[in-house]
Amino acid sequence: MKKSFALIFLFLVSIVSISAVTPTAPVSANPVGVYIYNTPLTSNIGLGFCAAGVTKGCIDAVTVDGDVLTPVQSIGLASYQIGGGLYSGPCRFVDTTVSQCEYPFMVIVPIRPRSSAFLNDVEVKFRRQLVDHPTSSINSAIVNGSLLSFEPAAPGVRDVATIRAKSTEINVGSSGYCVGWAVEVDSCLISDVATQKVTNRVSMLLLPAMRSSVTPPDFVDETCRQRDPSNSCFINIFDESSRGGWVDTDASVFGLTSTDRYTGAAQLKIAGPHYKVPVNGVSDLNLSFFRMFLPRPYLNASFGLTPNQANATSLPVRRTVGNGSTVPVTEYIPSPDGLLISSTGIGFSIPTMSVQRVLTVKRNQKITASTLLKAAGVYQTLKFGAAKITVNKKQGMSYSAKRYRFSKVKTVTVTIKYRSTKLAVSERKLTVSVSK
Contact 90/98 with Cβ under 8 angstroms? Predict the structure, then answer.
């Protein structure tokens, strides 16, 4: 699926002007036309507006800065373009059967000088595919821009998801496969100084949910492989508890959000030029933002935390390049629905942003197995079978009377073997910080 996303951007960049548009006075037009460009990938089953008899996912409505967009059949009649596709592939939730899931991907840009330099309010209403399988959902979103609000859709909840976002300034120093989502971010050639500034583009990828942090992908789906040989066709496994979760960034290149199956960390690899486009011969440092919203059930299942318990000590954000890492300026904003993690001032060139659980305990404090398993994000897997916690005696860890203790003031790595399915055993590493 990653390769498909990179190809999508390659096609879109060749047909869509992504440079900033000079602000002009708005031109009254009714209706305001939008032309949809579908990439020719075999996994694209066709992005379009909803119509009678359509059961696959479709665009219910799009509004840009108060203008309701109307689909037109010719790009010459359009003021905006939506490029992308409705991509299809096998997936399941941890506790469901496999189904054919849909991944809507949309890049929204103006193609007429009527539009301002920024898109201040882009609202997309997208109807999920009309089947009753739980994975027929739009539970998660990734936005290249700034997300304003997200209302998910799922069977028994609602049929139409609503995503509101605005464009941001994006400094670009790459092209081809390395604009937007990339297959291998590490292989992208990015100039030290940005060659282009983009301010009028919003792109969004809608997903059935965030990926499961404990269950690896299943076997290859051969029907998918026959239809699209370029696709790895592994059955992606998502976590239904992440309904309402999202990520946004203004980095010019980024991969898909993922989870480190050894540490349980939520991750996003981003990339961009070190410096912005020069102004009067002077280039400012190019700094990015990274935001992630974790719904309360997902935060509890994956990290063993409530929104008010999350902070820089219990859930640190790190910017990692090679063997070195730094801690960006990060704000933790709890709410009744979940936790918003907002990091700013992130420099380039190709860092990995990670959000990882750290369990802090007092020296010789008695700790239950449940506490360790919940902090490691694997307590939820006990339904598949028992987990085994390795006692690291060299690091001062001991076990007695069904309780664990840590006698040395230091950071200890605890290894846990757990069943990621009824038949498979996986390993998780939990970082424990022991204080006086």
Answer: yes
Q: How far apart are the first and last CA of the chain?
A: 47
Please say if the pLDDT value at position 21 is more than 90. Answer: no
Q: Which of 298, 322, 355 is the last residue of a domain?
A: 355
DSSP annotation of 309 reads: G
CA dihedral 317, 388, 422, 235 (to 10 degrees): 20
Helix (H) or strand (E) holding 373, with range, is: helix 369-376
List all residues 6 or more positions away from 350 whose beta carbon is below 8 Å from its beta carbon: 185, 186, 188, 190, 269, 270, 271, 321
Read off the pLDDT of each residue in 176-183 and give the average, rounded to a whole number. Answer: 68
Q: Are residues 288 and 205 in contact, defined by beta-carbon separation less than 8 angstroms?
A: no
Give DSSP secondary structure letters for 328-362: -EEEEEE-SSEEEEEEEEE--SS-EEEE--EEEEE
Interval 84-108 mean pLDDT? 91
* Calpha distance 384→370 (Å, rounded): 15
* 307 and 382 together in one domain: no
Over the Cα atoms of the chain, what is R_g? Answer: 23
By the 8 A CB rule, do 306 and 300 touch? yes
> What is the spatial distance between Cα 95 and Cα 421, in angstroms, rounded to a whole number?
10
Alpha carbon of residue 169 to chain centroid: 19
**53 with 145, same domain?**
yes
State the pLDDT at residue 2: 47
**Cα dist. 250→38, 247, 254, 293, 393 in Å?**
24, 11, 9, 16, 45
Beta bridge partners of 272: none
Last residue of a domain, one of 296, 330, 355: 355
- Global confidence as pTM: 0.88
Task: Pick the most confident of 115-124, 172-181, 307-316.
Answer: 307-316
Is residue 382 classed as helix, strand or coil in its secondary structure?
Answer: helix
Q: Are residues 133 and 281 in the same domain?
A: yes
Query: How many domains, the chain?
Result: 2
DSSP code of residue 39:
-
Are 199 and 235 found together in one domain?
A: yes
Going across the sheet that includes 358-362, the strands are 358-362, 425-435, 411-419, 388-389
Q: Which residues contact 407 (CB under 8 A, 6 or more apart)?
A: 363, 364, 396, 397, 398
Alpha helices in 110-260 (DSSP H): 222-227
> By residue range, what is the domain housing residue 369?
359-435
Do 371 and 329 sit in the same domain of this protein? no
